[in-house]
Amino acid sequence: MSFRWLSRGNATSGMGVSDHSRSTFMDLKRKRVHRYVIFQIDEKKKEVVVEKTGGPAESYEDFTAALPQNDCRYAVYDYDFVTSDNCQKSKIFFIAWSPSTSRIRAKMLYATSRERFRRDLDGIHYEIQATDPTEMDLEVIKERAN
């Protein structure tokens, strides 16, 4: 029985990626019109869609506050920083948000679809998988970017 259940779970890894999701990511990457993009899986459409975007002036705190406390999401965050050589840089982070309080089905769905979705987003510098806010704290982002 558990084998059949696992097989059904793997079938969900065929989640498509909406054209809007791809173009919104490209807007963040190339045009820098978004600070972050939060994506969710639309089970009815069987694809990853844009749930929310944050403007260039929004902070990391705005981004983390926009993530649901009890449900999974994918997100990309464009982190700007200045190097020790005083160079302005930007790194794009992919965050797989899967809080421990989310439903098991949601965790499975997001886990099995993550790799395919992540591959569709060309230009990601770093990936973080987080189950609670401390695993994606701004200090973690800063440390990874430098």
From TrEMBL:
InterPro entries per UniProt: ADF-H, ADF-H/Gelsolin-like_dom_sf, ADF/Cofilin
Record-stated family: Belongs to the actin-binding proteins ADF family.
The protein, known as: ADF-H domain-containing protein
Top-rank taxon: Eukaryota
Keyword vocabulary terms for this entry: Actin-binding
Domain ADF-H, chain residue ranges per copy: 14-146
A GO term for molecular function: actin binding
Region (Disordered): 1-21
A biological-process GO annotation: actin filament organization
Coiled-coil annotated residue ranges, if any: none
